[in-house]
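ASSEMBLY PREDICTION REQUEST
Request ID: AP-0331
Submitted by: J.K., bench scientist
Number of chains: two
Total residues: 231
Priority: normal
Notes: Please return the full assembly, not individual chains.
Input sequences:
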Amino acid sequence: AQTVTQSQPEMSVQEAETVTLSCTYDTSESDYYLFWYKQPPSRQMILVIRQEAYKQQNATENRFSVNFQKAAKSFSLKISDSQLGDAAMYFCAYRRMEYGNKLVFGAGTILRVKS
Amino acid sequence: GAVVSQHPSRVICKSGTSVKIECRSLDFQATTMFWYRQFPKQSLMLMATSNEGSKATYEQGVEKDKFLINHASLTLSTLTVTSAHPEDSSFYICSASTFRAGNTIYFGEGSWLTVV
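STATUS: Completed
Returned structure:
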């Protein structure tokens, strides 16, 4: 079974600074998806970024980028120029590539942004 | 706007009664929907996978007779908490899967259930 590990229960970052959230996973599959979701206090799950395992290039979405190391099974999220609105719980998630498969979530990291 | 709508967003029910939560995909057909439960400051715990027209697949440890899931159409799945008890109080979230946009999963807004 696939597992996702987020080893940082909480992180803090100063506004405008950069922070990196860690995620490792375990799978025997060669093709899969990896995601970072943000859950603000409203509890709405928001997709931050997505990476297909077959793509070597790291995904980027504006201030958010990932460092995907397939061999090491590592998928960290870097948030640049942190903003107060980035404060949330962040979940790393894995999904097998076939349609209809479930998301496997990590335990989450609470990100606090200091002004 | 939201592509997956969940209703009600908050519900309070008396212990021993049943309560139904709906999950609708608004502008796409979702052959698969997922139901999660989330405790405060914890991750999402998958309860069951709901496939249209067939019985739901429950995760280990989830009581299928207590958490009834119905996926009668391609746009609607329901979760019914039967004979609710205070320990069933939680945040429940649904998500729907579609081939659109590369097999993306969309989440509903979630439902707070309080059993008194």
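REVIEWER COMMENTS: DSSP finds no helices and twelve strands in chain A.
SIGN-OFF: pending second reviewer
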